[in-house]
Structures are given as C-alpha cells and as structure tokens.
Amino acid sequence: MGQSAEFGKFLKAMRSRLSPEDIGAGTASGARRVPGLRREEVARLAGVSTDYYVRLEQGRNIHPSRTVLDAVSRALRLSSSEHAHMMDLLENCAAAPRAGGQPAQAVRPALRHLLEAVGGVGAMVLGRRSDVLAGNRLAFLLFTEFPALPAAERNLTRWLILDPAARDLFRDWKAVAAEAAGALRLDVGRHPNDPQANQLVGELAVNSEHFRQWWAGHRVASRSAGTVRLHHPAVGDLELNFESLVLPDDPDQTLRIYSARPGSPSSDALALLGSLGADADAGNGQPQFPTAEAPAAVVETGE
Length: 303
Description:
Order of helices and strands: HHHHHHEEHHHHHHEEEH
Oligomer: single chain
Structural class: alpha+beta
C-alpha cells in the first residue's frame, strides 16, 4: 500500500478531536498548545513507537500492516465509516489517474421504468459525487427540478449546500448538508483522481464557509437509512424516511427512496404533492417530466 499526505491529514484531524479525558488522562497530562491528543499518546494507545506514528501523520512512504492500522483506528476511536475511509486513502490516493478520467455512469432502462412505477414515493438514482443520474417526478417535486438544471449542476450535494431553496426546505439543513459533505469526502477517498469531484469540492469551498469548515475537519458520513424533516412551500411540513440501496451491478450507484409512514399527515402531504404535480402537468398541456415511452425522467450527467 502506498502512503499519502491525505492519509496523514486525516489521522491528524481525528487525533485533534479527542481530549485527554477521552483516554483517562485528565488534566494531569499538562498544558496543551493544540487541541486533541498528543502524538505520543496515540502511539502508546496503538502500541507503536512515537517515531513510527509521526511518520504516519507526515505521510511518509512506509507500509503499515493491517494490524497496525486496526490498532491506530481503535486508538483514534474511528467509526466503521471513518475506518473504511482511512483504508481508502491509504490504498487509492497514490494510484495513478485513469487515462481519460472516470467513465460515464449509465442507468439501466429497467431501473428507469422502476422509478416511474413507484410514483407514490420520491426515488432517485445517485452516482459518484451524488450526481443525480435519474429520478421520478415526485422526487423532483420534493426537492428541485434537476432535469432543468445544466448537466454540471445536477448534483444533490451541490444543490443542498449552495441553493438557498434547500436551506428553506430542510428544517435541519445544517445537519443534512454536513452529512452530505461527509459522504462526498468518502467518495473522494474512493476516487481521488476524479477531476469532476475535485472541481465540485473546489466550487463548494469557494462558495460556502460551512463547507470549508466541514471539509477541513475531515468529517466522513455514511447513512443507508434515516429521516428528513422538510417544510415544503406547496404542502407544508413533511417527515420522510429514506433508504439508500447500493446497486449490485454498480457499487457507485445508489437508489435513494423517500417515503412517509402510512396514514400519517406526511403521507397525506406527499400524496397531495403528487396530485398537484399531476395537475400542473395537465395544465401545461404536456408532461412536465418525460413519460414512460421516453423514460428520461432519467437525468444523464453528461460526463
């Protein structure tokens, strides 16, 4: 395994978030010039020499064993997602860039039809970097009309962090946006030489102080299920459950489904939103989203 500067930066960020009290050192460990544990404290917890751990944080070209990495992970109290990210950084960041960049992602036709068939829930297919590869009408009514955006802007994380409408929509916007930034960092760890990902990170860092802080903290996040609370301009408050299912034929594609508890006020509001969207389609004299015969309710990223 190669070593990387990003790997060292990640270890340092994880060390800085721990306090002496976390390891039972209390105030007896003396005054500290910087937050977090000292390198020698992490080294002791991991059972390695201080010099060896310092070289890890400096990103020098050494080859830690899996046993050492597991010990460092335990010492830093990494979550399973953080541990996986640490391994990705070590294994992928030194990889040579792929000639011609990342291949374009495509959504299978059967999956496109499935999105339209489950019209009672919002459903999208997310690709690398959380690009919106496909979605049904209800998903776009819930969030934004991704098909109408320029191809480079059809990205869920970009929309969440930069669009003021997303701040108004998500009642817990800061937590949702921070989690999206953490998921993007996981993606960058898996695909460190993806120019579109690097461009997206740069755009978000330039335009969002929140994102700059989240990114500097090396936070990672990965949730396959959870709840979001919305205040929708058309139907009011909703509480929706989401499930994220990784597609077996492409682990970089995720089916994200938003649903409401049956019989709840949110279920009624979701149904109302769908009917309002259908009325709007009929009033325009043409479908607002592509039909089953031309199923590009699927959004191509144009990679």
